[in-house]
Amino acid sequence: MSPADRGWRRLFSALLGATPRGFRERNGAELLDAFERALAEAGPGRATRHRRAARECVDLFGVALRERARAVGDRLAAVSWIDVKLGVRMLAKYPGITAIGTFSLVVGIALAAGFFAFTGQFVRGGLPLDEGDRVVGIEILDRETRDEERRVTYDFLRWREALTTVRDVGAWRNVERNLVTSDGRAEPLMIGEMSATGFTAARVPPMLGRPLVAADERPGAPAVLVIGHRTWMERFGGDPDVVGREVRLGEGTATVVGVMPRDFAFPVAHQAWMPLRLDADLAPRAGPSLMVFGRLADGATLEAAAAEVATLGARMSDEHAATHARLVARVVPYKGLFFDVDEMPTMYLFQLIWVVAMLVVATNVATLMFARTASREAELAVRGALGASRRRMVFQLFVEALVLTSFAAVAALGLLVVGFRVFAAVAGSPGDEMIGFPFWFSFRPDTSTVLFTAGLAVACAVIVGVLPAVRVGRGDLRADLHRSAPGGVAPAGGLWTGIIVAQVALSICVMPPLLDGSNVRGLIPAEAPFAAHEVLAAELAFDAMPTWSEVQLADTALERARLAEAQHELLDRLRAEPGVRGVTLAAAMPGQVPALRRFDVEGLPSSSSESWGWRGWGSFVAVGFFEALGVPATAGRTLTEVDLETRAVVVNRSFVDEILGGRSAVGRLVRVAVRPGGEPNPWQEIVGVVEDLGVNPLATGGAQAMVYEPVPAGRLASFTIAVRVSGDPLVLQPRLREIVLETSPALRVQQVNSLDRLAHEDQKVGLVLAAMVLTGVAVALLLSTSGIYALMAFTVQRRTREIGIRTALGATPSNIVSAMLSRTLGRIAFGVVAGLAIALALGWADHGRPSFQYDATLYLGMAALLGAVALVACLVPARRGLRIEPTEALRDG
Amino acid sequence: MPLQAPETFLPLTPLTLSVLVTLGERPRHGYALMKDLEALEVPALVSGAGSLYAALDRLTESGLLAAEEDLEDPRRRRRFSVTELGRRVALAEMRRLEDVIGRGRALLPEIG
User: Fold this and answer.
1) Alpha-carbon gap, residue A371 to B12, rounded angstroms
2) Distances in whole angstroms, Cα of residue A825 to Cα of each of A248, A326, A360, A846, A869
3) Distance separating alpha carbons of residues A573 and A566, to the nearest angstrom
4) Where are the alpha helices (DSSP H) in A289-389?
5) What SS3 class is residue A150?
6) Could you count the other beta carbons within 10 Å of the beta carbon of residue A76?
7) What is the DSSP string of A76-106?
8) Of A97, A234, A665, B57, which has the fewest Cβ atoms less than 10 A away?
9) Host H or E run for residue A57
10) Which residues of B touch A41 (CB under 8 A)?
11) Are residues A54 and A46 in contact, defined by beta-carbon separation less than 8 angstroms?
12) Distance (Å) from the C-alpha of residue A66 to the closest C-alpha of chain B?
């Protein structure tokens, strides 16, 4: 036999080893023999022999795969159906455990899969367009800070000229204008000022008229507008003659030239497009913020495009060192424009955290199952004695668990679909003009999500089913049988108490940040010290730039004068309306989201939980703001004209409580804090204090402190006006829209509602998140409780006889309870201490000294809550143990 | 035990039918069977020894073949023979094929 033949033979026998054992035992020797003879008889030609040997090996490989698959199929078909039935029966037999376990798994899987599905919208798959995976984005980043540079007009024009691997290079930016329809209605419209190539890159033709073309981008070309299907339906009533019509847009006009089909919303969620006109003479790193897209040229790969863009970027860095030395250009899949590729590791980390959290949930369910499985030890031991193999029993427990987790996974997917719908309804429908989800968002779980969920179900089943089974099935059967007799020694499962300790500790570390990060406080309706339901509020924005002109930077002073005039006129006209008791303007009204700030207070060191400044919020308000809302100063005075010069401020009660610790505020100096080393801001005097005016939807972790600074007219380009009336404010709504439109077509009404409802709208998303976090906390508590309870109950049940004997020998109830509780309670206490220690260590890493990262009361409260719940979970079964009659316990023995 | 109805095995794969027919002549060892099948020069009837033995396994399992150790063979290989059931299955398959061919002739008379 030649060395080559020997090699083939080795390969053939290795492949034989891959076949199932039964097949190998029956046919192995004869096959090897047949192989050798086939080679020997194949003839003297080496090529023929090699061909024959290769053919045999490939064939055997196929046989190995097929036979293996058949063997698995046979086993599943023969074994599992009974197991599934048994599983269902066992789950039905313990409905309490099943209900708690299922509920926890559903929530756990839904959260982990929900995160996966949501992030998948940004990272997985191409766009739902023809060859949508070939649409790309081009962006520029700072080499070191990784900050994106969006002022890319100069670079964009170069890319458009030079790139050969990317075609249809285009850019867009968003502008918002009032669209005044023929019925006199003026409502804001989000417009994408987009290169005409956007339509060719997306490969979607218009439904009516024409798309934008290159000629529209030339200076002096007539202003044109392409509208989306929804704009067409909602603003133009689906008028088939809309093409050619001239419409008013803010202070200008434009001609509608085309209507796009339904579902077209490229580049993001757009329903109106105008040509993007750029100043070709702009210097590098100047001009408006743009987003750049393109489509890979035929035959070009993403890698080739990346190389070309990088080369071009390097050349730019050389030629324009002053602006571009630190910049790098790169090509990303289109969705990458909205999701920083550099953030991927963070995202995967978060995904991992969710999965681990879910596995912790599964481990908890396993604890429950363990108590149940342990009570079935006798059954399992008997089955073992009757000849069931250990593997067979473990497999059965696994299938039982799989029944449970599969059901939970299906329910979780259902919950996910419902959850996405609710989230979409709350946060805005897909393609909404204002915020809108990107057009590629789908609110159905994709294949990857379904597979991911299936994987989670199997992983959970392994933990839930196999862990208890391994635990119970360990050791010899006689010991198991012996133990299962009443009065046998309970397995003081170190693993399970370990899990409880870890879980208590984990809850204490993880829950406070979660609670802090969500607006749980917002779930409690706040009492505003003024009648928010009698205030009509309107969010307005001012077209700061002359409409779509080439002039990008308007004269700021001129802009301010125009805006100031408009604001004055608007407020004056509203004041003149009958029934109006007060009108005012602010950057954020009570209940809306103010600006997150940090403050320094003169003579007061910064907060113990922050490295610099005090967390708080700021809003700019017009002079007369508090009077208009009917809010008096509780100390000092409210803001007057004089304060515009001196920049004096008013603070709320929370500022006094949280930052000043209840000390007097009036006369103190405060300023907006800057990071250590920055140029400090000038001090501002506090001249008055008012009550807290309402819940700040984003205020979390107790920071409700608020500073109101007076602002002159003409400074805020987007603002909210409040009109206080007697009675129902909504009556005034149509009149308000009229007045705004008459005052200036450049003023856009974003939203109008009574102040309480407007604030509620702002809070909705936060409330949904808060509800989710609270559900999570509830699940964690429920699980810990039921896990501890199940273990304790099990222990008590096992020690019935011991308790009986002790009672008979004269032990007092307190002796017995302490004997039963001491170990468990000790471990829970250890978990609490460990959790607090870890939380402190995390705070140490963050602040450089041992402190909690968030409000200390959250940590201590969580520790107290868990401790109390654990105590109750121990005491209830322990009490049951005390009621055992000695005679009864001994008789059972 | 009554034999399973031969029709439940139909249709057979070309390899199965060839195995039944060839072994119907006389029992053989696996390797000899492979050589004979290869000599039929029907392309790709047997793709390798592995496939053939897997097929023999399956046919033995379902009772169409019988395998017995050949005590005279120095390597104690198994000798495969067709069972009564196997014979009937092969006949049923051939009748089915004849029927198909008959109908094909009626449809395409030029074939003759």
Assistant:
1) 54
2) 73, 59, 21, 32, 11
3) 11
4) 302-319, 321-324, 344-375, 377-385
5) coil
6) 12
7) IIIIIHHHHHHHHHHHHHSHHHHHHHHHHHH
8) A234
9) helix A46-75
10) 35
11) no
12) 10
Complex-level ipTM: 0.87
pLDDT of residue A523: 55
Tokens matching residue A207: 């439904």
Give contacts of B78 with chain A, Cβ < 8 Å: 30
Q: CA B61 to CA B55: how far, in whole Å?
A: 10
Q: How many other C-beta atoms can be found within 10 angstroms of the C-beta atom of residue A244?
A: 9
Contact B75 A38 (CB under 8 A): no
Structure tokens at A47: 């090529």
Note the residue count of chain A. 893
> CB neighbours (10 Å) of residue A439?
21
Q: What tokens appear for A249 in the block?
A: 């847009």
As averages over each run of 10 residues, the pLDDT of chain A (893 residues) reads 84 88 87 88 81 90 86 65 72 76 83 84 83 92 84 91 93 87 81 93 94 91 93 90 90 91 89 89 83 93 92 89 88 86 75 76 72 65 70 76 88 87 65 61 82 90 75 48 40 61 78 64 61 88 54 57 89 92 90 83 75 84 92 92 92 89 90 83 93 68 81 85 90 90 86 82 68 72 70 67 77 77 78 86 72 76 80 74 67 52
Q: How many CB atoms lie within 10 A of CB A274?
A: 23
Pairing of strands A706-710, A614-621: parallel
Determine the 3-state secondary structure of A246 from DSSP.
strand
Q: Which two tokens stand for residue A440?
A: 């590629």
Taking each continuous run of H as one helix and of E as one strand, the counts in chain A are: 27, 22
The string of DSSP letters for A433-488 reads SSS-B-TT--SS--HHHHHHHHHHHHHHHIIIIIHHHHHHH-S-HHHHHHHHSTTP
Residue B82 pLDDT: 94
Is A276 in CB contact (< 8 Å) with chain B? no
Q: For residue B58, give how far its alpha carbon lies from the nearest alpha carbon of chain A (Å).
A: 10
Long-range (24+ apart) CB contacts under 8 A made by A701-704 are: A701/A516, A701/A615, A701/A854, A701/A855, A701/A858, A702/A658, A702/A855, A703/A615, A703/A616, A703/A617, A703/A658, A704/A617, A704/A652, A704/A654, A704/A658
Q: Indicate the residue type of A741.
A: L
Q: Please, which residues bridge with residue A192 across strands?
A: A174, A273
- Inter-chain residue contact B50 with A38, CB threshold 8 Å: no
CB contact under 8 A, A30 and B47: no
d(CA A179, CA A337): 29
